[in-house]
């Protein structure tokens, strides 16, 4: 599914002469084909490749963002990141995650410890097919801990 969408979008970018988008999409498609050539590769595996490439872009951006001589590169990397983020499922906001936990009766108990509580939330998200940034999960867990501590 992701591979087919990438192929279609590459064709469109070629017709529109959008070099930055065409190049990043070709890179992602190549990585997916290289790493997922074995039978049994899931869409999740493919999405993880996209996430890994975005993480690499973030690392590059962090390293060069303050260099005035490299602002064009910063702009191009930011554009590439925005393009790739369109292929990932939308992550939940902190409010959406809190509501999800409430709606699904996922309890975060102060006695669990932070690591176990985060694991419980991540497991519930995966079971439902939803995603949230790990920093959002951590913020919600810490908020729940503070709420329980203040309420006791």
Keywords for this structure?
2 domains; mainly alpha; 152 residues; 7 helices; 0% strand; single chain; Hypothetical Protein Yqey, Chain: A, domain1
Structure overview:
The chain has 152 residues and is mainly alpha-helical. The protein has two domains: 2-85, Uncharacterised protein YqeY/AIM41, N-terminal domain (Hypothetical Protein Yqey, Chain: A, domain1, Orthogonal Bundle); 94-151. Helices cover 73% and strands 0% of the residues. It contains seven helices and no strands. The chain has helices spanning 2-15, 19-35, 43-64, 71-85, 94-103, 114-128, 134-151. Helix 2 crosses helix 4 and helix 6 (114-128) packs across helix 7 (134-151).
The gist of it:
The protein contains seven helices and no strands.
List the helices and strands and how they pair.
Elements: H1 2-15, H2 19-35, H3 43-64, H4 71-85, H5 94-103, H6 114-128, H7 134-151
Number of helices: 7
Report the major sheet. none
Classified by CATH, the class of the largest domain is: Mainly Alpha
Provide the domain count: 2
Tally of DSSP β-strands: 0
Structural class, by secondary structure, is mainly alpha
Distance N to C terminus: 49 Å
Strand portion: under 5%
- What is the CATH architecture annotation of the largest domain? Orthogonal Bundle
Low-confidence stretches: none
Mean pLDDT: 87
Full CATH superfamily name of the largest domain: Uncharacterised protein YqeY/AIM41, N-terminal domain
What is the radius of gyration computed over CA atoms, rounded to a whole number of angstroms?
19 Å
Judging from the principal axes of the Cα atoms, what is the shape?
globular
CATH topology of the largest domain: Hypothetical Protein Yqey, Chain: A, domain1
Helix content: over 70%
Instruction: Write the element-wise H/E pattern from the N-terminal end onward.
Output: HHHHHHH
């Amino acid at each position: 599914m992701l591979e087919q969408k990438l192929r279609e979008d590459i064709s469109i970018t070629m017709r529109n002469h959008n070099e930055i988008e065409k190049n990043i999409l070709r890179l992602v498609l190549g990585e997916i084909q290289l790493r997922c050539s074995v039978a049994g590769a899931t869409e999740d595996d493919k999405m993880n490749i996209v996430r890994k490439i975005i993480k690499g872009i973030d690392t590059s951006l962090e390293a060069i963002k303050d260099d005035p001589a490299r602002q064009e590169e910063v702009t191009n990397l930011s554009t590439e990141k925005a393009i790739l983020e369109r292929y990932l499922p939308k992550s939940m906001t902190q409010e959406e995650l809190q509501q999800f936990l409430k709606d699904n009766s996922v309890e975060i108990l102060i006695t669990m410890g932070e690591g176990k509580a985060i694991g419980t939330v991540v497991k519930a998200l995966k079971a439902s097919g939803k995603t949230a940034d790990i920093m959002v999960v951590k913020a919600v867990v810490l908020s729940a801990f503070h709420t329980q501590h203040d309420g006791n």
